[in-house]
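Hello,

Following up on my earlier ticket. Below are the two sequence lines again, exactly as submitted.
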Amino acid sequence: MVTHESGGHHHAPTGFIWKYVFSLDHKVIGIQYWFLALFSVFLGMALSLLMRFHLVWPSHHLPFVAGGIMTPDQYLALVTMHGSIMVFMVLTTAPQSGFGNFALPIQIGAEDMAFPVLNMMSFWITFVSLVVLGSAFFVTGGAPISGWTAYPTLSALGEITGPGEGLGQTMWVIGLAIFCIASLLGALNFISTTVDLRAKGMTFGRLPLTVWAWLITAVLGLLAFGVLLAACILLLMDRTLGTSFFIPGGLVVSDTPIVSHKGGSPLLWQHLFWFFGHPEVYIAILPGMGVASHLLSTFSRKPVFGYKAMVGAMGGIAFLGFCVWGHHMFVSGMSPYSAFAFSLLTMTIGVPSAIKTFNWLGTIWHGKIQFTTSMLFALGFVSLFVTGGLSGLFLAQPSLDLYLHDTYFVVAHFHLIMGVAAIFGIFAATFFWFPKMFGRMLNETLGKLHFWGTFIGVYSIFLPMHFLGIAGHPRRYADLTGLDYLGPLLPVQHFISIAAFITAGFQLIFLYNVFYSMFAGEKAPANPWNATTLEWSVPSPPPFDNFAGEIPVVYRGAYEFSVPGADEDFIPQHLTPEKVAGAH
Amino acid sequence: MPGTLTDELEILHSGHGGGTDVPAGGDGDNSRGGLPAVPRRVYFTAVQLALAGIIMFFMALTSSFLVRKGLGNDWVSFDLPRILWANTLVLLASSVSIEMARGALSHGDRAGFRRYWALTTGLGFLFLAGQLVAWHQLAVQGVFLATNPSSSFFYLLTAAHGAHLLGGIISLLYVSFRPWERSRIDQPTAAALTSIYWHFMDGLWLFLFALLYLGR
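Thanks for your patience. The regenerated structure is below:
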């Protein structure tokens, strides 16, 4: 390997605390984020199972529920915390901060992130935010009931609007504000690192698409989280300092007139929240797109079809992501002209999304496909992205959205495209990089069993929800027994709940696979997938400073698979032209 | 003049991929492991990104201000405390003195650098003290945070700017007191970065003052 000296060879820390807890090493921090997301995803899933159980067996006693039988506010508290934990602590942390931290510096040929101390702070601030958010369960009144979108006035008036709206909602807002700070620091670090720390020869045109995805996601995070932070501060002031940014006058709650506030606008929160919230959807899904592109190419042994178009499409999706927040507010009474503009811009996102989908198909077309577990999850990602995306075209039309808004159709849509597709991206990335992270392979048989169970399972859960929504079934209803028109839909709800329990059972296979393989899995070679990018040029797991002081030089793009005339069907990015020429 | 803001921006724009312009140092040996060396331009990239994030934060507050003011009939104007004009002059003067400090540093005039840098820090504190006086004057008149949306925004925007400016003051103190021989960044670079942030805080205040004045 041709190398040039790095400026200062830095040394590994000693002692457990500095090595594994307050580590400055991007790989350790990435794994810490990954564990945080793993804990959060099982917590979030447990909350959803309680909801699914209550929906279909509302009079059964449940564990972990005060009083045994769930009340409507307890159900709404589960809705809120399930959404908040999944969106912020899983979908925002694992794909970007987790795998991005672990792989980005190695993939661009850097020894670490540009600002390792800042990186460590990002993780620990995220951890504090999870603790503060989670503490909402244990304070007086319990967790908030206003959903992950926390619309005022419900979220702004305090405990008069519900038990969880007291201290629980305050902890939620503070937790989110802390999360914003962590994400801003992380985004700054990701962009600085990618722009300025690329190894010699690693031009922007040679970056792996994973790096492009993390870079674009970081730009979204940098521009979006400041807006959410501002919104959280305004909401906190309304709640605790008596201001009226979001609270209108003339409110009467539970027969009590609210006289201390007047003149504010609940819609102002919605604008601020969704100006953040829509880019947040892409913060969750773009890293998955990067991973899918990367894996489809690697496991089809073919270059990515239309590399530049893929980068441009991600940029286009990111840009449009800032122009479409109003489509979450079609029922807010906005002008039909605004709704038309938001609708048109929203449907425009179909163009870059279609470019990506067709390029993914073009990538695997006539490839020598290797159906590894990570490839299966990447293919599953594409499937879920298309299914979830198509229902977006319905919701993007104001006239249809008036009917479908706040029904299970919306629940199906965003779970497929933002939730499950992103989770499939996480699974794909886990199976792909686990050998590099822990030095051992995950079990492929268990992995495939887990994939098929999950793939069939999530479709069984979320496809029927479209029909529920079209039949007019509202979301966030805790009890379906009192409403005649929902009666005929109960069998569908039963089916969904049972599918959810079975799918959750399959996740235990994953958990077992992870912890068994971490300690007793087959030892991983440096490059188990015959992949081209730089992280596979170093041992598994990599040395502390990634390249043992010898920063590689990059000679080619990230996707040189099945190059005619080459001996092997892949050419690593760091291989010199002489070595390639000498090989045949 | 070497070492000016324009110079720094030129360094930034001539930046290219490839870790060749690595500064000396960075070979820390403490128990937590030294940090890897990085090119100098990455600090300038980071400061500019931080400013982009801060702009989005204040733009969200600004649009909230405009929307909330436009909502209805409960917006009550109040006279801004006169001391804000004096505070503005103090902050403008600090931007001049920070450039004089950097000019002195680039000419090797350590004493001059320390003098002007301390002056800048002092002016920063004076500005914050002046803002607190403005708050006090409003409180004496009975204008509090929750009195009216106009006063809510006044306290919020001045507090948010003050918190960011306090970050700048911490950065000024850091440049004064940091032991540079153990650092991977040198003092002129840190001074240049601080000055970019400081000028931005200055400009941000002019914007917010104009918003509060014209929008009152």
